[in-house]
Amino acid sequence: MPERDPWRSLDAQPNVRAMIAGLEARGATPAQVRLRARFLRFVPVRRGERVLEIGCGTGVVLRDLAPLVGPRGAVVGVDASRTILATARRLCKDRGPITLRHADATRVPFAAGGFDTTLAITVILHVADPLAAVREMARVTRPGGRVGLQDQDFGMLGVTHPDRELTDNILGGVARHLYEEPHSGRRLPGLLREAGLERVRVLTDFFQDTTLEPWTKTFLERRAESAVRFDLVDAPTAQKWLDGFTALVAAGSFVFTMTYFGAVGVKPRAAAR
Ligand SMILES: C[S@@+](CC[C@H](N)C(=O)[O-])C[C@H]1O[C@@H](n2cnc3c(N)ncnc32)[C@H](O)[C@@H]1O
């Protein structure tokens, strides 16, 4: 059976190019740039460190990490999609000490303890076995090193719209159909503890948009398409819903917030693995 969450099998998606472009559009959105910077400061990532990002996508985060670790550090990205890795290779070329590998989050081709920091940013939401992925991240992190996770939480999405019930039906319904755990964000601290990490800290943060940025517009359009596909609404209702946002933007009353949970834990120094 095909996966409901398209990020689980990106290479098989008919709109893989559009998904890749969407990731870059999100990465370039100024409020998202600031959100990533706040999380990387919270982790924190230091100069000279070896950092691994699992589910690196097009390398948006890898390109942020390279100047943070500097020329004496190393940034490694792994992803399960060969298509997105080809794009990442192009976009990360000449952007610092970045290397890329094809691998699943639950089995990365690295020895135990080789990284100072291991990150997964908007990835745990998509993986089939989040605990196995976080345990694997902990395995390749050195004792005393950090494992950092950040995810949206689709139970905490705020948006203005004249039809609140329809909005809840579309946004809540699509998230429940797409993801096994739409509330992934708030579960991240518990996941780190379950994987054996200590001194877990949490940063709750928001993406905020009041002008309907291109990425937000695409996000809402994709939600409307999915709502039709999952039979939650018919196509004219989905279009009417999208038109409701356009009217709010014109009136200067549009507000969209998406909650991101960040959680960072430390690998115990006495850990056996
Ligand atoms: C939403 S994107 C996030 C990309 C990047 N971290 C960012 O924030 O821009 C999710 C990425 O995780 C990858 N992915 C999904 N499941 C995976 C798995 N089991 N192992 C490795 N990568 C996976 C997808 O191919 C995709 O590139």
Task: Give a description of the structure.
The structure is a single chain. By secondary structure, this protein is α/β, with parallel strands linked by helices. It has a domain at 6-157 and 181-208 and 260-266: 3-Layer(aba) Sandwich (Rossmann fold). 42% of the residues lie in helices and 24% in strands. The chain has nine helices and seven strands, in the order ααβαβαββαβααβααβ. It has helices spanning 16-28, 30-42, 60-69, 82-92, 130-140, 164-178, 184-194, 214-229, 235-250, and strands spanning 50-54, 74-79, 98-102, 115-121, 141-159, 198-209, 256-266. A seven-stranded mixed sheet has the order 3-2-1-4-5-7-6, sandwiched between helices. Strand 2, helix 4 (82-92) and strand 3 form a beta-alpha-beta unit. Helix 6 (164-178) crosses helix 8 and helix 8 runs antiparallel to helix 9 (235-250). The longest helix has 16 residues, at 214-229. S-adenosylmethionine binds next to helix 1 and helix 3. The site of S-adenosylmethionine has 22 residues, from helix 1 and helix 3.
